[in-house]
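Handout for the seminar on molecular recognition.
Each group receives one record of this type.
Step one: identify the two inputs.
Step two: read the structure output and locate the region that could contact pyridoxal-5'-phosphate.
Step three: write two sentences on what you found, then compare them with the reference statements printed after the record.
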Amino acid sequence: MVERNSGFANLAQGYLFPEVAKRRREYQAKHPDAKIISLGVGNTTEPLTPHIAGAMASYAKALGTAKGYSGYGDEQGMTELREKIASVVYPKMVSADEVFISDGAKCDIARIQTLFGSKVKIAVQDPAYPVYVDGSVIVGAAGASSKSGHRGVTYLPCTAENNFFPDLTKIKPNSLIYFCSPNNPTGATSTRAELKKLVDFARKNGCIIIFDSAYYSFIRNKNLPRTIYEIPGARKCAIEINSFSKLAGFTGVRLGWSVVPSDLKFADGSSVKQDWNRVMTTLFNGASNIAQAGGLAALDKEGQKETKALVDFYLENAKIMQKTLTGKNFANAGVKVYYTGDSPYLWVKFPGWKSWDIFDKILDECRVVTTPGSGFGPSGESYLRFSSFGHRKDVEEACRRLSKLVL
Ligand SMILES: *Cc1c(COP(=O)(O)O)cnc(C)c1O
């Protein structure tokens, strides 16, 4: 018989979202008429904008003509799109040949593991987006699981006490550091000084940062960096992974990119970018050309106007929720809302509550689904994540119900 990849046995059960769905189903079965509203998901809800959808429709239509047809393109992505991303998102920081177009950030986070193999040390923020650790577990880099997580992983608690920026001194030299800002789930967006600390640490200690900036388009505070490459030295120690998913509602369309600077080197002095190019040309065959046409439209003048309005819509939802969650009934119970206006997620602490208990209470009494913070890591205990991805009328109705909650 063929041996199973031992990484799979080490994988912790994908517990969080299936358990949320199960509790929702059970509640609905008991209360068939209840209109449950979800503030729990990280999936976009509003339609594609007209200029961008139109560009994809025209491209698809042209594919049906002899003149407009094209087959395989460059695995690294259309040159025009790579240039557009370099000039619009990373002006004077990154060149087009350092941008690699993909089918999404999650897929790149998975593929990136092939660059480093199973011996690399890993550090992650706690709480964190689950793919960083689970992807490492599958390739055998995270080690066996124990009660306190995987043995090969250094968990970096991010809590209200440290303003959601971790103590970097815990990171072992020569580690891969997964870092997400604006953060899912905490919504925390690192300042320039914080990211400078991170980059300086990585350079001094031989680390590579995998910087997930999938929510960069939500940053409204002009003083906050929108890419790791705004920090001097980052080109020598950081890969950035990014996506059109939250920027333009492409969660279903599928389009992302990664930046691997030419300056980034492995321990033996060889080029990381060269190996990444090999990964993308060998294990990947290019993003959909229709999606790339949409990406191009999203970054032109009209597209930028549209995506800004789209993201503003979700940010407005977040403000509405923030107002409700800082209302009297919550404030009197000591509930603290962590939200700076630069992310789709509100990270809310319910002192004295376990995450799953307050999740159940809000489901029972408000018929509102949230996400238990403890599902993203031990430091998320007693928090809930409220997502601003929702239709306005649903968010408003959820807020009406929440404002009546007795804690
Ligand atoms: C949604 C999300 C992504 C985007 O993933 P895609 O595969 O591009 O849809 C990446 N990272 C984080 C933290 C996310 O929440």
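Reference statements: Residues 42, 104-107, 129, 180, 184, 212, 214, 243, 245-246, 251, 256 surround pyridoxal-5'-phosphate (CB under 6 Å). The first strand starts at residue 37 and ends at 38.
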